[in-house]
Design a protein that fits this description.
Protein name: ASPIC/UnbV domain-containing protein
Strand content: 25-35%
Number of domains: 6
Number of helices: 20
CATH class of the largest domain: Mainly Beta
Number of strands: 63
Largest sheet: 7 strands, antiparallel
Pfam families: FG-GAP_3, TPR_16, TPR_19, UnbV_ASPIC
Oligomer: single chain
Keywords: Signal, TPR repeat
Radius of gyration: 34 Å
Length: about 1150
Amino acid sequence: MLLVCLLLPALCFAAGPADVLIHRNTGLAYLEQDRYPQALEAFQRVADLAPEEALGYADAGLALLRMQRLDEAETWLKKALARDPAHAQAHALLAEVYEGQRRGEDFLREIGEAIRLRPTDARSRYRLVRYDLGFRPTPEGLADAEAQMRALYRQLPANAVVRLRFGEVLLRVGKAGEAQAVYRAAREDLWNVPDEAVPFLEKGLALLSQGKPEEALRQMIIFENVQKGGYRYQSAISEVLTSAVGLPVERFSEGFEARVARAQEAPIRVAFSDATREAGLGDTRADGFALSDYDGDGDVDVYVLRRSDPLRQSSGQASTSSGQGGRTPGNALLRNDGGRFVGVATRAGVGYRGAFTSAVFADFDNDGDADLFACNLTGPDVLARNDGSAGLTTGHGRFVDVAARAGLGPGKGPGRTLKAVFVDYDHDGDLDLFLLRQPAPGAEKKGVLLFRNNGDGTFAEVGERAGLAPGLRATDAAFGDFDEDGDLDLAFAGGDSVVVYTNLRQGRLAEAPRRVGYSGLSPSALAAGDFDNDGFLDLFTGAWRRNRGDGTFGGPEGEVRASGAHFLDFDNDGWLDLAAIGAGRLHLYRNVGGKFQEASGILPPGLSAVRQAAPLDADGDGDLDLLAIDGDRLRLLRNDGGNANGWIDVRLAGLNTGNTKNNSAGVGAKVEVKAGALYQMRSVADPITHFGLGRQTKAEVLRVVWTNGVPQSEVDPKINATVVETQILKGSCPMLYAWDGERYRFVTDLLWPSPLGMLMDDGRQAFHEAAHDYVKVRGDQLRERDGVYSLRITEELWETVYLDEVRLTAVDHPAEAGVYVDERFLPPAPRALRLHTAQDPRLPVSATDDRGRDALDRLRAQDGRYVDGFAVTAFQGVAAPHGLTLDLGAFPDSARVTLFLNGWVFPTDTSLNLALSQRTDGLRGQPPRVEVPDREGRWQTVIPFAGFPNGKRKTCVLDLTGKFLCADRRVRISTNMQIYWDRAFFTVDEPGVPTTVTTLTPARADLRYRGFSRVYREGENGPHLFDYDDVRGGPAWRDLEGDYTRYGDVTPLLLAADDQYAVMNAGDEVALTFDAGGLPPLRDGWARDFVLYSVGWVKDGDINTAHSQTVGPLPYHGMSAYPYGLGDAYPTDEAHRRFLETYQTRRVTNQEFRDKVKNKIKEE
């Protein structure tokens, strides 16, 4: 019998659930009217109605604080913190109490905790600074005041009060030089400052120049006092100081108001009835089962385990025979045929016999259909590959055991396998395998094995290398992004605690420092789900445990001795209910706004020996049924009435050709749904993810955040929504647009040779040196406008850009000659501008692809008609080997020959490279090489690394002089990279062409927010291009967090490559102008083209890119590696320190992205 130690109470409102909101609003109104006794009464009522919420207690404490009843205020605020220890505002209010009581140490502790919990709390920082200056003008206090003001100045650099106070603190700690720079910044920003105040500022600056800081400080204080009554000063002071005592807490905890709304709704009537026979299951014997849509027809099928007596197994090997002559029948596969189940195990080849404990379906080979893994106690486990033939010829599909071939056969070590969990822990696009085992006596002691999927049909055991403790034991496991940092973590249940492993990325895990205890119970049940709809995955561990929002979990709320559990929404109200098994009983708990009430009375009678249960929509009617094993028989419990509420079923379909960035079923992806006020989040674990919608008939927004971190949104999704992954370009480089006389048009991308922190497909880090990039801008692409040339550099993708230098070079030349720069990808290094001319460009005599097809017509002009037709592999950026053969005709052996090839490359990314590096078949990207025939007609490589286009629409310039081995002038460009050529021509003995070269530095460079351009493709095999005139707002990506360059003039940052750069976030733009007056008049018969030179780095947000979650560590030209090598550190001299303090002050977090669906932020 299920032992219930403490059953969770329902939301209990004596006067109705909405009253708590009414009392909250009334109390806030009383506070505004300074009617504190009435406010206190209202907030005490809130605390009575919502005793687990901190708001009522905190605001009651505030009312008492304003009445100067400080001891009582302390009591109530401590009650608030007992309910939410991480409530920053409650800590700040308690600090005000202690300040009023002159309890300095207590004040410092509480205000420090408020700042730690909410670093952007400017008012708490400023209060601490005032305390330091007023009550502890000691070296320690002044040092703390300096630290707090530095943080405030970074956060609010344009705030006049913060700027003046920072200058004052710097003078008090003896840093007059730095204070002078701060006051100079104030002099450059005198908007709305009274004229009579300015002389005091000027006199103070003069005194600082004379080395008289004490006298200067007096002038600066007068400068501040004179302007205190002005609008600007009052506006600035309101950001850091309030006129009233304390600020009220206005919001309940995340999801509370939605839970109140749920509690107001009358629940629909739901009952479960036994539909076993109706479903064709009859008297089906079962010792376990697994669910999946193995045949891809849209409904859920069942694989049934029938455990054989181990003593009857003479060899311990699994068998596919059907079990005749009285032997225990083999396992069964039951195909769902319109709600009735039909046995197809023999035809499907999965009638295995053995001591199987559990099974799971997962598409380990990413071919789009569900494969089967069965865990065996005494013999080898089974990995049965689905050949995908279901519904094609036989209608049933065939499975073949490939465990031994995959490296999962007997050689994996002795031990009893209890459970298998498939999840892409290293985010490389394929499903890895965790095996939970009971090691055999005397054998190795590993209880959890981690087999990394190599992506080629094989697995490698990497548990200890990945960071799993050798002594880890577990009977159950769950996965999801518990700490909401964008990667998948794991939780293991075993012994007396749940151990959480956080994901460090690049295939590494680390045990989280805080375990989740069981409070005396040691169950084996573990389930993950967002049961309070706040956007964070909670746990059921035999008790309900809420995620605090940082990957740690609160104390137990109710305790249930359970051997198995599943979250499900059986009444489709949008709140996850729970099915739990304990002592042979199946129990249901209905979720009422985040609290649970037992609802087992809606189950049919007679369930007395339940061993396993799981939800499924067996009849496809929109509500979740339950499949259970009672004794040793299957029981189908049909849900009657759950579909009176709305629902949506979501299937994810990852691309498995030319992409493979995500596993085919999206396992581990985060799916969010918003329907009216109802927000829900699920971590995908099954082929179908079910959402109840309550009284809503549809969802307005559905967002998938795939396991590679890329978001994909659907507006007004259908009830049965299949979300097919869109091949989205998430990283490339910043984009360049030019004013062409009519509009800004896309030109190309920049800084390709600097993929900071990227992994290569051989497992090494990419180049850490800055890119020194030259790109051509044709004269018809860039036209003079009001005396200037205007360019735009935008960041559209999931990246951070460190733009260090920009120059524009005008190249004047005879109109009949073309001018080019080499835009190949080559190892990054400083290099001078080199121009290549083509006065007499020649078209090849012939051009053929590797299949002998004529390609010459596609190469005549740069017109977006690309040479394609080669096969792509499963991986974006890697194709089947292919080549382009050009016959250049005849010319002397001594001729100078230069080949020009224009095209674009579709790149891999870090996670794809990680996947490629793990393969055992040697599949890697092979950069282009140049081959020519020898005298025997055999192809010989003459340029092993020919480079490749540096992104989109780039020209590669190849010197073929002296490379030909005979009179045959054919040349072949061979590669397996996904490169598409658009134009080819060559020159022979190109004469010298006169040019006039003039280089311009930016006249003005402004950094600002712009948004995101519409992306489109130039034909089926053309690059992703961007429409500057069609722009939308964000957030579009999970931003890299940290300090970016503040908006405004950044011209000084782009004049030299000095590690003082403009740091751009996704959605940012640098608007560049160059003075056209600095160019000479254009000669008659000449034309003018341009070359843009840029220096910098790009770091993308790919989950496996080094430091991909943060802006830092900042790159610099002298570093030995990235991540930093031993001894590397960003420069700390005065110039670089001043750069950081002056420019790097715009704090960016990814909170807005994470809350986008929850708050239903509409895209512009």
